[in-house]
Amino acid sequence: MLSFANCLLALDEQFYEPFSLPEPPEGLVSPEIHSDRRVTFRLFAPKAVEVVLHSDCFGAETDTTPFGTSAGSVKMSKDSAGIWSYTTPYPVYPNCYNYDYIVDFVNNVIDPVNPDDAWNQGSHFSVFVVGGDSIADLFVRQDVPHGRIERFEYYSEIYRANRRIAVYLPPDYDTTTHNYPIMYLLHGISGDEMAWLSLGRTAQICDNLIARGEMEPLIIVMPNSNPIMNSDEDGATTMTDNILGIPRLMKAEFEDSFEELVNLVHVKYRISPKKSKHTIAGISIGAHQAANIAKIIPDYFSCIGLFSPTLWKKQVPDFDAADNSFYYYIRMGKNDWVSWSLSWNFAGRVKRKGYNVDIQETIGGHTWKWWRLYLIEFLKATNNPKM
């Protein structure tokens, strides 16, 4: 017998078409970044009554909360051709931003002419970058040699299920025969294997740093480290799902299965056998996982990057540091209440066990705005071509 809720769902499927936009006219550009750093957004929706643009580029330049700035919304104007548009009246500060549209009360509509998109906490966003300084220019796809991204699934005996993975290969990978440094890069609680590529701009950062001669070419492995996400799910799980899944996440399924992943990538790719060429980093809960993994296979890594980490006593190694032990590279924002005190407490505990710790606090909070910067500095520090 159908419940009342199921009956409503059945009626909804019977009488209503899924929301979709018409095919945009050829040549439509959105967003357009002007030479003065103003930005024009355009959306072809001739039958829409109202379109609202929602973006974090309207927020303050400095973080106003631990989770960054509050995104703002503006109403767009429609021309006679059915194209809605809005141009910012001021230059947009150089950085990477998210945006989406509300079309006649349909939320979270992404820009169909912008190929850059991202998932975060179950929502789908379009992404754009405003260059103009030495850091933000690293987020832009420049006219330099480009690496490539491989995505595939692998079977985990620990999970007893398929898991997804994305791998960045440097521009010269197919033209050389030598072995490469490797970095494992873990996402946060609301991401998946594409988070560091979409929101983190990892491929663009690496391409540009390599082209500048500021980083040695390396392989970056970005697995889906969320144990509650099935391999056939699209995008990232919602924050509600993640909160409900925390007990399972704390069981460290991903950490226990990590050696499977290491064995897989060492067979599939040309990776240096040297410990000095192996690093791991993560953000938030991904940093929690990275610290756990360092305990499980301590002889594999040279450096553990912990960005805005959520760490407790359980992530501290049970063993004291040796002469060739890894060191900890820890970064977090001063107004990041999620990880600030946890980071300092953890740093003190591992120092007492003899580990080298490079810990610094920055301004800002628990956001991608800072994690991209931490990644840049970590890559330059651990993959210096002059080392």
Low-confidence stretches: 1-16
Question: CA-to-CA gap between the ends?
Answer: 69 Å
Strand elements, count: 18
Q: Supply the number of helical segments.
A: 10
Helices and strands, with pairings:
Layout: H1 4-15, E1 32-33, E2 39-44, E3 51-55, E4 72-75, E5 77-78, E6 83-87, E7 95-103, E8 106-109, E9 117-120, E10 123-130, E11 148-156, E12 161-169, E13 182-186, H2 195-198, H3 202-212, E14 219-223, H4 239-244, H5 246-249, H6 253-256, H7 258-268, E15 278-283, H8 285-296, E16 303-307, E17 327-333, H9 340-352, E18 357-362, H10 368-382
Parallel strand pairs: 13-14, 13-15, 15-16, 16-17, 17-18
Antiparallel strand pairs: 1-2, 2-6, 3-4, 3-7, 5-6, 7-8, 7-10, 9-10, 11-12, 12-14
Helix pairs in contact: 3-10
